[in-house]
């Protein structure tokens, strides 16, 4: 495809081009935020290994309705909006790895920033969130 045809297409479909550039910019922004947050990411299998080897704690930061649909067994549930006020509830786990999880892995980076501000150093993001956990056919509780 030559450059002239690309320019012609762009001129004929400006809304489509703007939508594409907006989506691309959002993707770059989200990925940069994830990489520069200082928070490590682990997949579901690595999270289980971290739990088994280092007694990691799962922190589910989704809202109540999402949590009831299915959550990781023994996960501590503190919705993201309440985390700054309730972070003291996690104090006894300060020496453990904390694996923050949400639906898809995006909101948990915000939880990682909050925990880091309160001195938690060993915080992980569950890459892909509970969706990846369920896709890996790992157990969930619906209580």
Automatic annotation (TrEMBL):
Keyword Transferase: yes
SUPFAM superfamilies: Rhodanese/Cell cycle control phosphatase (SSF52821)
Keywords attached to this entry: Membrane, Transferase, Transmembrane, Transmembrane helix
Rhodanese domain mapped to chain residues: 52-142
GO molecular function, one term: transferase activity
InterPro entries: GlpE_sulfurtransferase (IPR050229), Rhodanese-like_dom (IPR001763), Rhodanese-like_dom_sf (IPR036873)
Superkingdom of origin organism: Bacteria
Keyword Translocase assigned: no
Transmembrane spans: 12-30
Gene3D superfamilies per record: Rhodanese-like domain
UniProt cross-references to Pfam families, sorted A to Z: Rhodanese (PF00581)
Entry protein name: Rhodanese-related sulfurtransferase
């Amino acid at each position: 495809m030559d450059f002239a045809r690309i320019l012609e297409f762009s001129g004929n479909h400006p809304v489509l081009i703007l939508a594409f550039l907006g989506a691309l910019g959002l993707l770059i922004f989200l990925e940069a935020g994830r990489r520069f947050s200082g928070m490590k990411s682990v997949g579901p299998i690595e999270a289980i290994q971290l739990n088994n080897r280092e007694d990691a704690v799962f922190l589910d930061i989704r809202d109540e309705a999402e949590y009831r649909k299915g959550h990781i067994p023994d996960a501590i549930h503190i919705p993201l909006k309440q985390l700054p006020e309730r972070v003291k509830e996690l104090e006894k786990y300060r020496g453990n790895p904390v694996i923050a999880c949400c639906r898809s892995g995006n909101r948990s980076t915000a939880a990682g920033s909050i925990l880091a501000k309160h001195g938690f150093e060993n915080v992980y993001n569950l890459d892909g969130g509970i969706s990846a956990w369920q896709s890996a056919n790992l157990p969930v509780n619906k209580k």
